[in-house]
């Protein structure tokens, strides 16, 4: 009996080992031909600024660099994104400077380069009495979420007008596609949103622009609101597990995005066609190929490494002044922690 038990135990261990080996074979088979393995990117949220994710996939830049990629829905809640990176669920992200406070609080990501200029506006309905940022004092502003980049863009402009972003206005949250309706119904006074939703509100509903964080033309008016001339709004972020534990893979991901961003800048029309036909961006009367191509051209896509670090430093200072980073933040130390210099 004892001998039989020993034999059965050995057979059981062999079966478990075989099963694990089989799982390993399946996993390796899934990434066969991809020397740098797989990554998962929370990309799908309907925004135009996510173009590098889609183009790197559709035009084969991920595959060219030995990466098997999976594009999944992007959570609107930043805490869900943080949890996804901390757990290993996500590997890379095309996102804004909104992640600086999260990194300060322990989010496991690093910026690896500025990827394009602004795609965010603060808007008011066409008949609104609000004409300038100063008029926003005491008003209600809606954005896609607390800690979202539209909230931070509005907050930077507010603090430049000597309005405390935390006490001088009231914040509300609505989904991207419901923000304009909330303002039209009088539920809020102003909105902060991203393209194509902001563009749609401007073109279809004649919303007026109070703040535009795309200051590629060097507007002194926008610069006085804290909107950096030629500043990167959006960045490539990588999980710390890549930058710290697998630098070879991290460099391959950066290269794929760099090639995708360069391609986008050279092919705005084709990029727009891909985004709309593949339904990465929801189309409408005004969100069409011509207009999306024009917006893409205005973003000046291209992965900027050292320039991106300068821009991150600038926005870190702005967020500190606006009260979204700790008052005793050492910006230089934070940026060194938040930025990946490959």
Automatic annotation (TrEMBL):
Alphabetical keyword list: Signal
InterPro entries named in the record: SsuA/THI5
Signal peptide: 1-22
Gene3D superfamilies: Periplasmic binding protein-like II
Top-level division of the source organism's lineage: Bacteria
All residue ranges annotated as the SsuA/THI5-like domain in the record: 51-270
Record-given protein name: NMT1/THI5-like protein
Species of origin: Lentilactobacillus parafarraginis F0439
């Amino acid at each position: 009996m004892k001998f039989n038990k020993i034999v059965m135990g050995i057979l059981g261990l062999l079966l478990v080992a075989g099963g694990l080996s089989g799982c390993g074979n399946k996993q390796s088979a899934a990434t066969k031909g991809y020397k740098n393995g797989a990554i998962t990117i929370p990309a799908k949220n309907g925004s135009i600024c996510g173009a590098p994710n889609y183009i790197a996939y559709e035009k084969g830049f991920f595959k060219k660099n030995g990466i098997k990629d999976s594009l999944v829905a992007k959570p609107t809640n930043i805490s869900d994104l943080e949890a996804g990176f901390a757990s290993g669920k996500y590997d890379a992200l095309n996102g804004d400077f909104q992640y600086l406070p999260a990194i300060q609080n322990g989010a496991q990501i690093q910026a690896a380069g500025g990827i394009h200029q602004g795609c965010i506006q603060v808007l008011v309905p066409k008949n609104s009495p609000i004409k300038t940022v100063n008029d926003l004092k005491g008003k209600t502003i809606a954005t896609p979420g607390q800690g979202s980049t539209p909230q931070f863009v509005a907050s930077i402009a507010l603090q430049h007008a000597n309005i405390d972003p935390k006490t001088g206005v009231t914040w509300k949250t609505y989904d991207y596609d419901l923000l304009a309706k909330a303002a039209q119904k009088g539920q809020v006074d102003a909105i902060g949103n991203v393209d194509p939703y902001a563009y749609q509100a401007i073109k279809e509903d004649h919303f007026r622009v109070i703040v535009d964080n795309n200051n590629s033309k060097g507007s002194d008016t926008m610069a006085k609101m804290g909107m950096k001339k030629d500043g990167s709004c959006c960045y490539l972020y990588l999980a710390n597990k890549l930058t710290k534990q697998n630098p070879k893979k991290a460099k391959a991901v950066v290269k794929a995005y760099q090639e995708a961003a360069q391609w986008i800048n050279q092919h705005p029309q084709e990029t727009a066609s891909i985004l709309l036909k593949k339904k990465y961006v929801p189309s409408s009367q005004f969100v069409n190929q011509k207009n999306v191509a024009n917006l893409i051209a205005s973003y000046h896509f291209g992965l900027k490494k050292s320039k991106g670090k300068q821009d991150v430093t600038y926005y870190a200072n702005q967020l500190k002044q606006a009260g979204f980073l700790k008052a005793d933040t050492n910006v230089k130390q934070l940026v060194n922690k938040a930025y990946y210099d490959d």
